[in-house]
Specification:
alpha/beta; 11 helices; binds iron/sulfur cluster; globular
Length: 303
Amino acid sequence: MRDDLDIVPAFPKVINIETTNRCNLNCVICPRHDAMNRPVGDMMWTLFQRVIDEIAASSVPGSPPTIGLHLFGEPLLHPDLLRQIRYVKTVLPTSGLYLSTNVALLRGTLAEGLASSLLDWIVLSLDGATKETYERVRRGASFDTAVANVRGFLEMLERQGTDDMHVWVQLVAADEGLTGEVEQFYQTWGSWEKRLPRMRVVIKPATDWAGQVPITPVEGSDEKENIPRPGRCRRVVEQLNVYWNGEVTACCYDVGGLLKVGSVQEESLAAIWHGSQMTFLREVFRQGKQRRLPLCRTCEDAG
Ligand code: SF4
């Protein structure tokens, strides 16, 4: 019996919003291409507003959840992205707000808008230090464009004197090729850590997304990673994830909706958080029977 799951906060600590589940790439390390059997689309502005308004109304005073503007799609594809950021920061000014991008579209006025936005944290996923590896992993992307976009964005932040946005330039240590490029990745991007106080080169452990992507673990790669692996799963007392059409899942690995717990089209996020389906999932975890759940059964975080 797990007693670390007994305390259920009044509202989730993290809410990820899938503003779109469209993507411009087809990366080998992403579960989206094999497991995405949901319809593809963008979140409507009225639904986005409703979700943010509801978070504002239900949050614990002084402790609003962190909000991610991504889940299983590329957030820069959504035409309302800058408007979404402005709205979150107007209605929930003290919420941490972050997103992760594959950087293919991080240029021009969109990049300028993001650089001057109130985003707290942006992850720039590069996943390769060489053209050969990058284009093998990030199928459909150009290495030269990605590097130019990341460099251009960092230069924009430097020019603007932006020193309070956390920026991660990230490599996922997914297989032999990537792990072998860690030193080179640091060499290329490490000097930026001195130029921008909150920029960090991040080597992230590979995940197989609960068994949905065939990742080959590389012996000894843990020593290279500077982000700790997540411990035993506590997502059922920490997070909710809203798909673009309003459906809600308990897990940020859930591409296909196997752990769906409701829809904000039918009930509030607070009602879903305290509702029967989340309560059932928590009880399964408390009893240590999570391996009986779809998705958790093949997940390395299940414990
Ligand atoms: S154990 Fe289940 S809920 Fe936790 S990360 Fe894995 S699939 Fe998600």
